[in-house]
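Example complex used in Figure S2.
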Amino acid sequence: MSEGNAASPLLTVEHLTQRFGGLVAVSDVSFSARDREITAIIGPNGAGKTTLFNCLTGFYTPTVGRLTASHSGRTWLLERMEAHEIARQARVARTFQNVRLFGGMSVLENLIVAQHNKLMAASCFTLAGLFGLPSYRKAEAAAVERARYWLERVGLVDVADWQAGNLPYGAQRRLEIARAMCTEPRLLCLDEPAAGLNPRESADLSELLLFIRDHHAIGVLLIEHDMSVVMQISDHVVVLDYGRKISEGPSAQVRNDPAVIRAYLGEEEGA
Amino acid sequence: MAGAGTPPSDFKAALGEAAAAGGIALLLTLPLVGMRTLETSGGLVIHPHFADVALTVLLVFLGRLGLVLIEAGRGGAVLAAAAAMVAAGWLLPFPTEALRGIALAGGLVVALRAGLALRSRHSTLTQAERDRRMDRVGARLQDASRLIGPVAVLFALVLPFMPFANRGVIDLGCLLLTYIMLGWGLNIVVGLAGLLDLGYVAFYAVGAYAYALMATTFGLGFWVCLPLAGIFASLYGLMLGFPVLRLRGDYFAIVTLAFAEIVRIVLLNWTAVTNGPVGIAAIPRPSFFGIADFTNSPAEGHLAFHQLFGLTFAPVHRIIFLYYVILALALVVNFFTLRIRRLPLGRAWEALREDDIACTALGINRTNIKLAAFAIAGMFGGFAGAFFATRQGFISPESFTFIESAIILAVVVLGGMGSQVGVVIAALLVVGLPEAFRDLAQYRMLAFGVGMVLIMLWRPRGLLAHRDPTILLHLRKSARQQQAESEARG
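Predicted assembly (761 residues):
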């Protein structure tokens, strides 16, 4: 498995199949995503990309297949774990296609909630916190500092005390990424982060993702329809169509794959 | 259409519509109100009540006329007329008290409608803008509550020594504080964690029976039993939690309701332990922290409260003591909630209310968090139950019906989910007003219903639905300004 460099497989998907009754949403998909790389999963609507994500992050239990995450010298079998264990132990964080923020809470609170498990331990399961012990206060200050760091990264420091639900759409998307990063993940799964963004915001997003990959040394798994983002930043592209993997490789190679062109543009006449 | 010059044809049409409504009312009330059967020695006799019918029809006629005229743009005139009607209902003699109540309520409703119509015509605000304005009022009130809170607590502390504080006032205070405590307890589950619990009274029942049974069977004192009652109610919460917390939304609410009924029915039928519908009587009253008793003639070797402090014996001493016990218990719940909102557990509860799927994706174990909410809120419910049992001295399953759950839930929802001050105000309204208007007899529930409908119309999210962040990155003032800016923008 080891390839002798930093880009070892962080996530391995083997023969993943997900059926809903008679419908096969994902069928026998295998690929791997490496550490410190951005792996994009693309495909037409209904190709099973989000289903794949839901299997990875424990929201669905796959019908068939093995999902392995390995880093820090340990290995986790994701298909056997519950969603919150995957986030907490295997350090896989995700965002959602339709933004899921805590809309009634402030921007900063969203980022503090993301550090729940750490703070919970620091507050001795609220006992130390209830009496305001200094150890808890220190942990909370550290959590606020981490939140401030990510707010600076996504350009939301000025609105840190706003209600998250009052932010404009693009800012909500960035906040969701910041919130996922506050859980200190090793693999970040982004479900269409550029959906609904204007070209400028998309460019900022690409920059942010490259920064996360390079400076935080984690793997990024990306579902995206915006080809400008995908082709610009992806190290590796996996193409799904009707639940099957039809192509895989570096972006330049995938772009010219006839199977991919067929899936996106339809069969050429006389071909 | 506004102004004085409404064409006579319009008025005629309004009269016609009102007459039609009156006719329907006549058809309905003639058999329902107009003829009552009386049992005399000669058998059943029909007793006519045509005066009542005529008055009811007249009321319906006037009410409908008022509504039609409001719609036609004559709100001002209708407002004056309706106000006159309310005054008449207050001052003039009516054949029955019921009709006086109807005249008062009818006039009030029409006057309110007219007033609302006038206001909304004059203001060009949309509903959303009005909501936001109310929210700002709520925010200001919550700011003020930083001051009002201590003042209110101080007032509650000195209340028993006020000149007007007779036994009735202190008893009412105890009742109110019990509901405030229950409201604050339920607020943890409903307001913070967003779990609609329709069966909170079950915790209350478990606490009350736990104390009553332990005290009457094992002779344990109140101060030993109080924590035990809390632990029992908490355990009930955990037991209930495992099957129930897998459910969400409406299903969750229905199952909590069902479990509360199960508890009541068990209490009703497990005669060997709970004494069934007869209930448990002669529950011991609390002692003064185990040091002294509140009796005129203490048992051998025991001290009496009045002897301890060199007072003359008065039965009100115990009532005042009970008042302070429930005040302390309620304040404990309040301080706990205020504190926990700033801790990871409390923030996770609120996050759970906002979006439970996102919580899971952040590695938060939903089940544990929900169980914690249930266990803690249950513990406070158990404390309140033990207090209830010791205050009443007698409990039976009658005290733990669904209506109690509904009232506690109404307190939380009307107050504004998650708002501590809101719970107090709502408890004053929901529990205090019906107590204050006991003279209206059965019509107080009608008034209660009207009040609920009005609040839901004006403040669908509760009286004080504004929420302040629990932690700020910037200074507080600038945060407010920014929020205002964001509101101004959209």
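The beta strands of chain B are 35-40, 43-48, 292-293, 303-304. The first strand of chain B starts at residue 35 and ends at 40.
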